[in-house]
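Per-residue structure
===
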Amino acid sequence: MKTRDSINAVKDMIRAPYAWDGYTKVMVMADGDSMCAACVKENYRNILRATRDNDRSGWQAYAAEIPWEGAPLQCCACAVDMRGMYAVRGF
């Protein structure tokens, strides 16, 4: 993903942490970790700077996604569990 697209994904996640129908988004970082919307909002300066500068310090964002299924993801900043949507809704 291009840097501009990643920066736009960060800004969009801060403005709208939920996708259509109330699905929670998570930020996928360049190193493969995931971050919750609250931590993205709290650390947006570090994330935008690292993404802009292609810094591999762990703050570089890649994309915002909806966790659909699979094992719960854990936020790399606050360690909150982020369950997949099918797990939450019981499908």
Observations:
- The CA atoms of residues 39 and 79 lie 10 Å apart.
